[in-house]
Structures are given as structure tokens and as C-alpha cells.
Write a structure and sequence with these properties.
Blueprint lengths: L2 H27 L8 H26 L1
């Protein structure tokens, strides 16, 4: 897989997990959904940060 394709996928996954973290935060803290645990909200946030860092590293790597 070419690096530019991997960069696109990492960027898309970062935004998907960011949306999942925001949605789970709203469901958890505003609507008090009981079946949603805080650990899932934290996992979505950590995965979002991870894929954003991978995306940034690939952008820097391709532009140097």
C-alpha cells in the first residue's frame, strides 16, 4: 500500500474516532446512557489521538 493511501486512511480513521468520542461523550454525560461505559469514551479518544499523530507523521514524512 502506498504511503499516501495510508495517510488518507489514518486521517479518515482519526475523524471517525473523534466523532465516536464526541458522540459517546454526549450520550454518556448529557443523556446518562447507562450501558455506555467511560472506558469506551476514553478508548475512542485515545484511538483518535493515535491516528491523528500517525496522520501528522505521514504528512511530515511525505513533505520533507
Amino acid at each position: 500500500m502506498p504511503i499516501d493511501e495510508l495517510m488518507k486512511i489514518a486521517g479518515i480513521l482519526a475523524f471517525v474516532f473523534l466523532f465516536a468520542a464526541a458522540a459517546s461523550g454526549i450520550l454518556l454525560f448529557k443523556f446518562h446512557v447507562r450501558w455506555l461505559n467511560l472506558k469506551w469514551h476514553m478508548r475512542f479518544g485515545i484511538l483518535s489521538a493515535f491516528f491523528a499523530i500517525v496522520h501528522l507523521a505521514l504528512v511530515i514524512y511525505l513533505n520533507i
